[in-house]
Design goal:
Blueprint (H helix, E strand, L loop, with lengths): L1 H30 L6 H7 L2 H4 L17 H7 L44 E3 L5 E3 L9 E9 L3 H13 L4 E5 L1 H6 L1 H9 L3 E4 L12 H19 L5 E2 L8 H9 L3 E2 L4 E2 L11 H10 L6 E5 L2 H16 L3 E2 L5 E2 L2 H8 L1
Helix pairs in contact: 1-12, 5-11, 8-9, 10-11
Bound molecules: zinc ion.
């Protein structure tokens, strides 16, 4: 018994060493996020322009708190006349976690091996390969914020993602999940990743620490209740965070991100214009970009063509499960 145990321990230590040495090269980047306000850095170029005010279209609603009711109205589901066209919907029976890369000499007792990490986020919220020799940098991260709103749009997005074998993060708001837990479940069941986008879609920079805590933790809780696991990714509404928000997010084991490619799909200039959504994304296309989109009818309509165009340019889609959250290093620097 003791021999076996020590063997196990040394294996674990060796694995840990391998993992940390693999990470440390890029780790500094995320670790040093504090030195420069990365959030601002990413948004600097166009802070105001790119600021997603997805709920801004209904600014009539006022800033109060994300009133789901009114927000829904603006999205005029009628425009989304695209039939969700259920082709091959049940393709994805496997949630992302199932895509495990089994260790060659796995000890039966050890936990299931996590998915192999291939990418790390950099200071401007784009993604770079951990091993440039073996992993392509010609990839994008697809994200859809502010849902889940309607089955019609959610299903259409999921179908298109399936069609292109693409993965994405759906950054959800708690008040919407509360109204449509079945939609959240559907997103997770179809193998897509859930991210935390605060409960009410409010500017967390303006909130007290207690309020921020509630905004973030309540979403962790409801997502766990509905799909069984807590989100590992967080995006603040409007891209607005501060050190407290970032620290709390990290404490909850989440990677904090804004984006590096705004589709402007939330902006009035793009409303009802799927072609504009596509053009905006392609205009800012670079290897590793983190593409901000929303659950909106014109985005839903644009997605199939957008993904086809990205593929024709040689781009692949990052599976969020392959993102190294880099939390070890972040925790170290925080202390
Ligand atoms: Zn949002």
């Amino acid at each position: 018994m003791p021999i076996r145990k020590s063997h196990l321990i040394s294996i674990v230590i060796m694995m840990a060493l391998l993992v940390t040495s693999g990470c440390s090269s890029n780790g500094n980047r995320s670790g040093s996020t504090n030195s420069t306000p990365a959030g601002n850095a990413a948004n600097n170029g166009s802070s105001t322009v790119k600021e997603p005010a997805p709920d801004a279209a209904n600014s009539a609603t006022d800033s109060s708190t994300g009133n789901g009711t009114t927000t829904d109205g603006q999205n005029d589901p009628d425009k989304n006349n695209q039939p969700a066209d259920d082709k091959g919907t049940n393709a994805t029976t496997t949630p992302s976690e199932n895509t495990t890369a089994p260790e060659p000499d796995s000890n039966a007792t050890t936990d299931p091996q996590p998915v192999k990490k291939l990418y790390k986020m950099n200071k401007v919220y784009s993604f770079v390969p951990i091993d440039k020799a073996t992993t392509s940098n010609k990839v994008v991260l697809l994200t859809f914020d502010d849902g889940p709103k309607e089955d019609k749009m959610v299903s259409a997005l999921l179908d298109t993602l399936d069609k292109h074998k693409a993965k994405a993060i759906f950054f959800v708001n708690g008040y919407r999940v509360k109204k449509h837990p079945e939609l959240l479940k559907k997103i997770a069941d179809r193998g897509q990743t859930i991210g935390n986008h605060s409960w009410d879609h409010i500017d967390l920079k303006k909130e007290s620490q207690a309020s921020v805590k509630k905004q973030i933790e309540d979403v962790q809780q409801i997502v766990k209740e509905v799909v069984g696991t807590e989100p590992q990714f967080f995006r603040p509404p409007f891209g607005n965070g501060n050190d407290y928000v970032k620290g709390l997010v990290r404490d909850h084991g989440m990677l904090y991100m804004t984006w590096s490619n705004g589709s402007l799909d939330w902006d009035s200039s793009t409303k009802d214009k799927p072609d504009k959504v596509i053009a905006n994304v392609l205009e800012q296309l670079h290897p590793g970009v983190n593409i901000l989109m929303h659950e909106l009818p014109w985005t839903t309509e644009a997605l199939d063509t957008l993904l086809t165009k990205l593929e024709s340019k040689g781009y692949g889609f990052i599976d969020p499960a392959t993102i190294d959250l880099g939390l070890e290093e972040q925790t170290q620097t925080a202390k």
